[in-house]
Every structure is written in structure tokens, then in C-alpha cells.
Design brief:
The complex is a heterodimer of chains A (124) and B (211). By secondary structure, chain A is an alpha/beta fold. Chain A is 45% helix and 19% strand. Chain A is globular and about 30 Å long. In chain A, 41% of the residues are buried. With 211 residues, chain B is of the alpha+beta class. Chain B contains five helices and seven strands, in the order ββααββααβββα. In chain B, the strands form two sheets. Chain B has a five-stranded antiparallel sheet with strand order 4-3-7-6-5. In chain B, strands 1-2 form a two-stranded antiparallel ribbon. In chain B, helix 1 runs antiparallel to helix 2 (73-85). The longest helix of chain B is centred in the N-terminal third of the chain and has 42 residues, at 29-70. The chains are: A alpha/beta (124), B alpha+beta (211).
Chain lengths: 124, 211
């Protein structure tokens, strides 16, 4: 079975580092990354990841905007997007789902929770 | 792989009884195996907890190293706290030991006016510097907080070679985070030392540039 590819989008270098460590040590997923929504849309079109894990508050283009763009595009509309953010309030969660995301995780991220969720979307 | 045992013990039949080493009682094999299994799980959990902690410290350390190149130590500290601990309301104060005064070095997510009272160095904030020990709201006695400290979750002393260089004030945690957890205390312990080292490095770099 081919290795699944995840696009991680976060402007925080710390978040990218932690997630990279979680993935490299506890899974076989291939991780590619982008630092804002705009780059995420470009990379998603080019690299067709199996799943996108994306922060919301980012410069240039937010995660919500990027999610809307991805969901409107035939090439990327089927890629599951999981929003990963510090904002856990109901209003933000609803806004997240309204943008078309498949799931919503709050920071600080729990590695087991994250991997279980990814497994649910991508399989082992 | 879990669940395979140690591989050296021969299989036992259900219902067999074995005599333990101390010989005090007969324990059914099933119970003995269950006890070993519980012990193994507990040991495994200890190692996994440590792995989780090291992973976070490793990421925090890597970000601090990067900040030395980029000259954004305060932003790095804030990023580490936001992403690994769960607070976006942070202020970093410089401490001037000769005059025993504070000055605000950097803040994010907190109104500047709300930080003014801290400069007098009283309350939990002052105790942290006075004792040279980080202070946490949940470990304070009732009534030990000043009115303006209600939202103050932690005062982390930044200490390098016994010299206090500053204090990180962490205010409200994110709504989904109820309290600090064991790994958070370890992360803050790491920041006490290495955050201070990074701050000192940045100060020296600032002096170099200005001369």
C-alpha cells in the first residue's frame, strides 16, 4: 500500500516541528508543509496530499479561507481538511465546519488524539 | 510489540498454581500473569510519557536555537507557550537586579495597561523574583493574589547561572485548557533556563549591533 501524504500548514515553526516529530516517530505518513493558506492551496494542487492538517490564524491567507478555496476546486475538493487551532470556542468551531473542513482539533495537540484521527481518515 | 510477554516463560495451563518466590501464598497463574501485565503496562506508560515530554522539549529547543539566528527570542517563547502549553496571553519582563526593577520587554495578547501594575513587583509576580522560584496560581494559598493577578496563571523566572534576567508572565490559558499539566511544568522548567540563555544571547547581540 502506498504511503499516505499529509500536508501540514502552520505559520508557527514550533507547531511544524512538533508535528514533524510526532509523524516521524509514530507513523509512516509522509509529511510536506506550507507556512500559510496561499502556499497550502498551491501545494495541495501540485502534490495532491491525502489529507491536509491546517492552522487557522496565518498570514497572507487564513486556514478558513484556504479551506473554502480548496473545497471549491474540483482538483482538491475531496481532500479531507482538518483544522488545527488554538481557538476552541464554539463560534470558531462552527466557522471551521462552515468552511468545509472535515474535522477540527484544538491546540495544544495531543499526539495520540491526532494520530487516532488521522488513522480514521487514512487507515493504518 | 505489546502483549507478547517476555518470550522466555513457557506457556502455562489455565488453572495451574505456582508458588511465588517468597513462598507465603499460592497465587493462581492467571492472576500472577495479570499482575505482570499491569506492571508492564505501567512501565511502558512511564517510557511513553517521557517520550512525549522529550519530543516537546526537543521542539522547544529547536525553536529557541532558530530564534538565535532570527533574533526573535520573544516570539519563539510565545510560540512555544501557545503551541505546547496552550496560552496566547504572554508578557516578558526584563529584570534589572542592580535597581531591583522591572521593565516590559515584550507582550502578546495582553493590553499594555493591564501590565503596568506588575512593574511595582508585588504579589505573586514579586514573590517569584524575591524567591527566585517560578510561581503558579494553582499552588498559591487563598488570598495570596493581588486583584490584578486574577488572570495570571504562572510567573516563570528566567534564570541563567543564578542570575535572574527576566520573568515570563502567562495569563489566561486557552478555553479548552483547564489547568497546567505535568508536562507543562517540565516545559516551563526548560524555559526557565534556556529561555534565559536565549534572552541573554539576544541582549549581547543587540549590544554588538549598537557598538
Amino acid at each position: 500500500m502506498p504511503t499516505k501524504k499529509i500536508l501540514l500548514v502552520d505559520d508557527s515553526c514550533t507547531a511544524r516541528l512538533v508535528n514533524r516529530m510526532i509523524f516521524s516517530q509514530k507513523s509512516n505518513y509522509v509529511l510536506i508543509s506550507a507556512v500559510d493558506g496561499k502556499e497550502a492551496v498551491e501545494r495541495a494542487k501540485r502534490e495532491k496530499p491525502d489529507l491536509i492538517l491546517m492552522d487557522i490564524v496565518m498570514p497572507r491567507m487564513t486556514g478558513l479561507e484556504a479551506c473554502r478555496v480548496l473545497k471549491k476546486d474540483k482538483e482538491t475538493e475531496k481532500i479531507p481538511v482538518i483544522l488545527l487551532t488554538t481557538r476552541g470556542e464554539e463560534q470558531y468551531v462552527q466557522e471551521g465546519y462552515a468552511s468545509g473542513c472535515s474535522d477540527y482539533l484544538t491546540k495544544p495537540v495531543n499526539d495520540t488524539e491526532l494520530l487516532d484521527l488521522l488513522k480514521a481518515y487514512l487507515g493504518e | 510489540m505489546m502483549g507478547t510477554g517476555n518470550g522466555s516463560r513457557p506457556p502455562t495451563k489455565a488453572g495451574c498454581r505456582t508458588e511465588p518466590a517468597d513462598g507465603n501464598a499460592l497465587i493462581p497463574t492467571g492472576i500472577e500473569e495479570l499482575r505482570v501485565r499491569v506492571q508492564q503496562l505501567s512501565l511502558r506508560e512511564q517510557i511513553e510519557r517521557n517520550h512525549f515530554l522529550l519530543m516537546r522539549l526537543n521542539a522547544a529547543n529547536a525553536r529557541l536555537i532558530q530564534s538565535l539566528e532570527q533574533g526573535d527570542v520573544f516570539e519563539a517563547i510565545a510560540e512555544i507557550i501557545a503551541n505546547l502549553l496552550g496560552s496566547e496571553e504572554i508578557a516578558v519582563f526584563d529584570y534589572h537586579p542592580a535597581e531591583k526593577t522591572f521593565s516590559l520587554a515584550w507582550s502578546s495578547g495582553v493590553e499594555a495597561d493591564a501590565l503596568q501594575p506588575f512593574l511595582c513587583g508585588a504579589g505573586m509576580f514579586g514573590r517569584a523574583v524575591e524567591q527566585g522560584i517560578s510561581q503558579f496560581q494553582e499552588r498559591q494559598q487563598d488570598g495570596a493574589l493581588l486583584p490584578y493577578e486574577k488572570n495570571l496563571t504562572a510567573c516563570v523566572i528566567l534564570k541563567s547561572s543564578r542570575e535572574i534576567v527576566g520573568v515570563i508572565a502567562i495569563f489566561d490559558l486557552l478555553p479548552q485548557k483547564n489547568n497546567l499539566e505535568w508536562a507543562d511544568y517540565e516545559l516551563l522548567k526548560f524555559l526557565e533556563t534556556y529561555g534565559a540563555v536565549a534572552m541573554k544571547f539576544q541582549r549581547l547581540q543587540g549590544r554588538q549591533v549598537s557598538t
